[in-house]
């Protein structure tokens, strides 16, 4: 019986929707900030954005512009690729 249920679930999951590749920009801002013992407010002031913007970027609710990405890298004294990376993942459309 368990095998039948497992087989049905496997078959249904394949029929739900076709998969597609999406991309997501991940960041290390929280880690870099912590390494420097900076608060969100301190980082925001150094870059010229609001504390709320820093929070949104750290929580992946906002992807910064290319200009802001470069400013963040500069303030951390690292390359942009040390702050941001492109992560590909397979996502099901449901």
Task: Describe the protein.
- Helix content is 56%, strand content 19%.
- It is an alpha+beta fold and 94 residues long.
- The chain has one domain (2-92): 434 Repressor (Amino-terminal Domain), CATH 1.10.260.40.
- Strands 1-2 form a two-stranded antiparallel sheet.
Q: For the CA atoms, what is the radius of gyration? A: 20 Å
Q: Could you give the order of the helices and strands?
A: HEHHHHHE
The CATH topology assignment is 434 Repressor (Amino-terminal Domain)
The number of helical elements comes to: 6
CATH class label: Mainly Alpha
Q: What is the terminal-to-terminal distance?
A: 27 Å
Low-confidence stretches: 12-19, 90-94
Mean pLDDT: 82
Gross morphology is globular
The secondary structure category is alpha+beta
What's the helical proportion of residues? Answer: 55-70%
